[in-house]
Design goal:
Helices cover 73% and strands 0% of the residues. Helix 1 packs across helix 2, helix 3 crosses helix 6 and helix 6 packs antiparallel against helix 7. It is elongated.
Amino acid sequence: MSLTLGIFDVFTYAIPGSLYLVLGAYVATRLGWVDVGDLNTSPSIVLIAAIIIASYLAGHVTYPMGSNLGHLLPLWRRSIDDARDEFTRRVPAAAERPYVRADLSLLQATAESQQGEVAQEISRLRAVGLMIRNCSVPMLLAVVVSIIEAVVGRHPQAAITAAVLLLWAALAGLWQSQRLRHWANLKTLEVCFWIADIDTHVQPAEPEPARTGGIARVRRRRRRFSDR
């Protein structure tokens, strides 16, 4: 039996989950709940496998925290429409093409099926963007831990320095995350521009009448995909 992890498994879930484990291990050690030295008695392969599995699970469980954090900073958020507007400014010939207004998740699926190797860059940008966003949450939690360490610990200056650096890294990560995911949306539109007959296969997403709440539902669907 073989186990294959995709780019989203590693970047979006496992790496942020490992930060939660490191932070949890540090807190547990400082409180005297765990002795890290006892781990040396465990077989290396078993220990590594346990860390990988725990990181992957922690990344899945804590994913909503990163998603909610991204919604708390609306001024930094870039929507799918922002990518469309920038793309049509760069490529005026595409402004009237139907595919530009089609659902972006469908466009990405089309790019992956027609231009597999090129579309891997889209997945990489999106996965790295989500990784950085999800890593910002444990960094912010580490800021809280550092502040507590500054109050009760023996090295307040080091703790305060760590808190400032972690806060800067978390905020910079949130900003960069939006930037990378915006690039992924742009890349999707750029790749689909060169797919022959794409306009005949996809149609612009038309919102339902306002009286049925269709516009709100379309906007929610767009936000959910943009949040990925």
